[in-house]
From TrEMBL:
NCBIfam families: vanZ_1. It comes from Pedobacter aquae. The chain crosses the membrane at residues 7-26, 41-59, 71-89, 101-121. Keywords: Membrane, Transmembrane, Transmembrane helix. This is VanZ family protein. It comes from the Bacteria.
Length: 131
């Protein structure tokens, strides 16, 4: 258990930052004129990075790029719990923020992109190893 936490410290730290940033009050005066949907891209980016950090921790823990499908399922469950938790906090606790299903969907798209990237790179590294 402690060794798992040791290897997942970057992911844990990033999760704490995501919780903080997603629940900070937004100032209407200082808002940059960005395009519509920018906040969804931020959610996607936060969870893409979180997924990559979780996978990186697992790779370092087992000292191998090999994975089990159960690892992917665990990462999906962990990130879904965090994304859902953020939206629940925004809905019930930090009412100055709005909870949106689209934010949660963006979170899960970021997770999917992170897993897809890992699987794509893992496949490429296996092809290179065989050559």
């Amino acid at each position: 258990m402690l060794t798992t936490i040791k290897f997942q410290l970057p992911a844990i730290a990033w999760s704490i930052l995501v919780l903080i940033f997603c629940n900070l009050p937004m100032s209407q005066d200082n808002q940059l004129p960005l395009f519509e949907g920018f906040d969804k891209m931020v959610h996607l980016g936060f969870f893409f990075i979180l997924t990559v950090l979780l996978l990186f921790g697992k790779i370092n823990q087992q000292n191998s790029y090999h994975y089990r499908p159960l690892t992917i399922v665990k990462i999906i469950i962990i990130t879904a719990a965090l994304g859902g938790g953020v939206e629940l906090l925004q809905w019930k606790v930090f009412t100055y923020r709005s909870a949106e299903w689209w934010d949660f969907i963006s979170d899960m798209l970021g997770v999917g992109a992170g897993i897809f990237s890992y699987l794509l790179l893992h496949r490429k590294s296996r092809i290179i190893e065989k050559a």
